[in-house]
């Protein structure tokens, strides 16, 4: 975090040293206004911190930590098989049953919290393919619940979203020229996993575009399964959220995706997804066009860019409902 955005009460997660390696402040020290001013005078521009106030605002996950771990394990068990020979790929029946049970639990737990989902922790930073798979699965299921999909369709959506990138297990990590082959490999692997046609099509089609400009076959929207079109949206969103660097304006993500409506993405599905996705998760530290910084304390369905923001000062705090304050906008995500 930039030193200008650090606040009193934040805790250092790394030692602060000067250009010569001299220790200025130790990891674990709680920052004060005096410490921050001193570091600025010494030319320090960035610090690594833990923000207890932000953590206190964050709410529980949309599914339990245990279930999230189970999803990770289910994906990893197949992904790490490194099934170079498609003909020999045969997941154990017991593992497929375990996956089915986990997916059923995801649908049940997410359905019970749909009315407050925009304020819950859904996606986590994309550390690896496993975390990405879980993120896409959870966000896709939430959108499916919002659209009132039937249970059987939700189950196909959850499985397809979880395993949409399974084919990457067969690609050398450095072979970027053949990246889209993972859609073909994924389909073949899933065909041998005794899953539905819809699940295999999600793996095959999640990089196809609405106008036929996608990969690997350049299919038009009418030839792409609706669940594949939804996973295409969620997959891209999870990717760009982590590719965005410090200070990247989340408005640009939404503008870019909406500009691709009915060109790259199914516009109706995109709008439904954006009604359930939190652009600024609760606990995010943001900057406003007023120059103030504040913490996101709540989000609203249909208004992903206009959450409730709490601005702290020496006298307490002020809660700003950006839905009711159209002249105030978030210009920067500082941490979240």
From the 3D structure, determine the CATH topology of the largest domain.
Answer: Hypothetical protein af1432
How many E-type strands? Answer: 9
**H-E string:** EEEHEHHHHHHHHHHEEEEE
Range of helix content: 40-55%
Distance between the termini: 11 Å
Main beta sheet: strand number and arrangement? 5 strands, antiparallel
Biggest sheet, spatial arrangement of strands: 8-7-6-5-9
Q: Return residue spans where pLDDT drops below 50 for at least 5 consecutive residues.
A: none
Query: Would you tell me the structural class of the helices and strands?
Result: alpha+beta
Which key terms come to mind for this protein?
alpha+beta; two-stranded antiparallel ribbon; about 325 residues; globular; 3 domains; about 40% helix; Hypothetical protein af1432; 11 helices
